[in-house]
Inverse folding.
């Protein structure tokens, strides 16, 4: 089979990254595709970037809203547009590996009962250097029912929709979602998809997730009670979804209880302070100050005071540097060396592809 696939790219004011994302789609070894870009009224170079690439490739469709309708509404608009047998969703700062569609669609073509397939995601920095990997074993696994629902929560398989391909029918889930306040609507969508459908995981490189200061993941707070409520609402939706099996609906109670008992991530905030003592950056310093404010706003005033004291303590800075400075830098150098070795070794083909499309 050679069924058509649509790559959905909602975008807002990221023309530099967007060009690379577009090129990663157009350069796919699987050629029967179309690329639909949904510009949330960027009013910058976005349209020019798309137009320059569209001159030589008619597979690009471009829609620009007349005003900014909000990120979630733009995503909903994108999902409503799906009119091909397969689709994927790509953030405007991420990119796909060259054989992603070929590998994913092979699985879907050979297993008609599978509604979506997951591949691995590599993490890269703003300069397209590898900073995090997941070992590729080429193994194909299948998940269904409550075990599949749990597996998506386990951390054993990727939970990033950038490296997933879906059948058209799965898109309707996004239309049904009540996600007005959800800053991570991808997880709401994926949890609901896993609650309803059988899916597969193919342990091969599928996509690249860019980690930078402007990414949505960078805005996650150390403590955010309001968002914790939003997270609970994801499971409430599934609990009342009559199309979901009873065992999965019952299982949502476990995840709701876990969120209700969730404590603020104090260790993460302390680690930020320790690292910032050793290797100061303005962005990390700002995140620490935001954490301190967030703890105070959420009612953890003592914790906020302690974090603030440590953050501004010259004595703590000296002690941390003496005790952990050399160890941290050695660990950092070791990890960078490992990532560089992987980038120039088993992932060389993928990173050569990134260089090619970034020219």
């Amino acid at each position: 089979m050679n069924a058509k696939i649509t790559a959905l790219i909602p975008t807002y004011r990221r023309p530099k990254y967007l060009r690379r994302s577009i090129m990663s789609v157009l350069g796919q070894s699987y050629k029967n595709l179309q690329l639909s870009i949904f510009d949330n009224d960027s009013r910058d170079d976005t349209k020019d970037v798309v137009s320059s690439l569209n001159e030589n490739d008619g597979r690009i469709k471009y829609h620009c809203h007349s005003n900014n309708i909000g990120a979630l509404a733009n995503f909903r608009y994108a999902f409503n547009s799906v009119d091909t047998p397969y689709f994927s969703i790509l953030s405007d700062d991420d990119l796909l590996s060259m054989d992603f569609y070929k590998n994913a669609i092979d699985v879907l073509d050979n297993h008609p009962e599978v509604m979506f397939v997951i591949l691995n995601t590599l993490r890269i920095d703003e300069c397209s250097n590898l900073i995090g990997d997941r070992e590729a074993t080429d193994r194909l696994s299948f998940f269904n029912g409550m075990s599949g629902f749990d597996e998506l929560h386990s951390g054993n398989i990727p939970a990033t929709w950038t490296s997933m391909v879906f059948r058209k029918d799965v898109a309707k889930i996004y239309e049904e979602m009540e996600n007005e306040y959800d800053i991570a609507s991808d997880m709401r969508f994926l949890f609901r998809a896993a609650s309803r459908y059988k899916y597969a995981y193919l342990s091969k490189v599928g996509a690249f997730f860019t980690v930078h200061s402007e990414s949505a993941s960078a805005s996650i707070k150390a403590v955010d009670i309001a968002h914790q409520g939003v997270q609970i609402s994801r499971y409430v939706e599934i609990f009342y979804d009559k199309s979901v099996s009873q065992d999965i609906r019952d299982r949502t109670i476990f995840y709701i209880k876990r969120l209700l008992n969730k404590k603020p991530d104090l260790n993460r905030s302390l680690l930020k302070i320790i690292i910032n003592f050793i290797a100061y950056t303005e962005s990390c310093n700002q995140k620490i100050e935001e954490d301190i404010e967030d703890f105070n706003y959420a009612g953890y005033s003592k914790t906020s005071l302690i974090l603030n004291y440590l953050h501004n303590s010259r004595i703590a800075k000296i002690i941390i540097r003496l005790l952990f400075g050399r160890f941290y830098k050695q660990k950092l150098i070791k990890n960078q060396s490992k990532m560089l070795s992987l980038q120039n070794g088993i992932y060389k083909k993928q990173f050569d592809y990134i260089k090619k499309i970034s020219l």
